[in-house]
Amino acid sequence: MKIGIIGAGASGLMAAVCASRLGALVTIFEKNDKPGKKLLSTGNGRCNYTNLLMNSDCYNASSRAFVEEALSIFDENDAVGFFKDIGMLSKNKNGYMYPLSEQANTVLDVLAMECRYNNVNIKKNIKIDNISQKGSGFIVKYDDKKDYFDKIIIACGGMAAPKTGSDGGGYEFARQFGHTIVKPVPALVQLRCSDKFFKDLSGVRCESRVSFYINDRCVGSEQGEVQFTDYGLSGIPVFQYSGRLARALQSGEKCKAVIDFMPESTKDEVVLMLNKRHKASQDKTAMELMIGLFNWNINKVLLKRAGISADKKASSLNSRDISGIAYYIKEFDAQITADNGFDRAQVTSGGVDISEVSASTMESTLCRGVYFAGEILDVDGRCGGYNLQWAWTSGYIAGRAAAND
Ligand SMILES: Cc1cc2nc3c(=O)[nH]c(=O)nc-3n(C[C@H](O)[C@H](O)[C@H](O)COP(=O)(O)OP(=O)(O)OC[C@H]3O[C@@H](n4cnc5c(N)ncnc54)[C@H](O)[C@@H]3O)c2cc1C
Which of 310, 340, 370 is the endpoint of a domain? Predict the structure, then answer.
C-alpha cells in the first residue's frame, strides 16, 4: 500500500507514523524546508500538546457526534501514551500537558525519529499543486515529477499563521474532490475594538470575567487574564470566543465584550465597597479614591467613562457618581469591530465540511481513497492543547484507516 500525505505538520506526521507502522509505504510532501514548523511555535515554544480535561464541548464543530466518535478512538490519554511509547515524557500542569523538556522541539524530534525508524520518506521543499485520480489511486504532481499512490491523506492545515506553511491551499484539493468548505475564519485570535480608551489601557493585564454578545444576545462568558492592547482585547478568555465572534462579524452582526472587573462581587457589593471608601476619602481626589482597586490605567479609564475628572474632590461625588463607577467596574463594554486576521490567529475555524467525512476513518464519503487530518477539517478547539489533540486524533485515525483498507 502506497500512501501519499500532503503536509508534514502535526497531523501529517501522526498519520505517517500510524500508517507506516501498519506496513504502508509512506511519503510525506512538505513545502517548507523542514517538517513541523508550526509545531515549534506552539505553547510559546513549549507545546501544550493535549489536555486531560477533554470532551467534545471543547470543540467547535457542526457535529458533536463526529468529534465524540473520533475522540473515542484516540483521546488525550492515548496521546500521552503514544508520546511516552516513542520516548517523550510529559509534564502535567493542571491537566495541560507539555513535554517534560518544555521544548516543542522534543515533540517534533520524537515524531521525526519515529518516522525515520518506520522508513517514512519526508520530501521537503516540495509544494504539491495537483492531485489527480488514476484508476483507484492518485497521481501527485510536483516540479516535473509525478508519483502514484493508492491513498492520499490531505493534512495541509488551515489558514492560521500562514508563515508556517498553511495558507489554505489544501481547501482546493478538497474542492477538487467535491467537498464543501465551510468559510474559514480566524480563531484563537485577538479582537479589535473601536473605543478610544484602549490607547490608555495598552499593556494592562487584569483578571476578570468577559461576556460576549452578538446582536445584544449574550453567547457566553469566560474568566481569566484579559490583556488590553492599543487596538483592543487579547488573552485566553478573549481567544476562546474569538472564532465565534469573527464569524458573526463576517456576517455583519454586531459584537461586543462586557468586562466584569470584580466577578466575585455583585453590583450591590461593589456599590457598598465604593460607598465605604468614599466616606473614608473625603479629603482625597476621585483618583485617590480609586487607588488600590485596579491597575492605575484601569482606574483612570473607569473614572473617565463614569464622566468624573480624576482630580475632582471625592467629597463632591454624589451617589450617581458612585453607581456610575460601580456600573463600569461590573459592565465595562467594548464594541468589537474586527478580528486580528489569520496572520495573528492560532487556528482556523471552518474548513472541510465534516458531514462529508467519516469520523471512524477520516475518509472522504465523496471520493474513496482520500482522507483528511488536522486543522483542514471544520473542527477547532479551545485554547489549551485541544487543537493539537485534534491533529493527533484525526492523524491517527486517517493514517491507520488508509493503511488498513
Ligand atoms: C503560535 C501558535 C501557537 C499554538 N499553540 C498551540 C498549543 O500550544 N496547543 C495546541 O493544541 N495548539 C496550538 N496551536 C494550534 C496547532 O498548532 C494547530 O492546530 C496544529 O499544528 C495543526 O496541525 P495540522 O497538521 O493540521 O496543520 P499544520 O501544522 O499547519 O501543518 C500543515 C503542513 O502542511 C504543509 N503544506 C500545506 N500545503 C502544502 C502543499 N500544497 N504541499 C506541501 N505541503 C503543504 C504546510 O507547510 C504545513 O507544514 C498553535 C498555533 C499557533 C499558530
Answer: 340
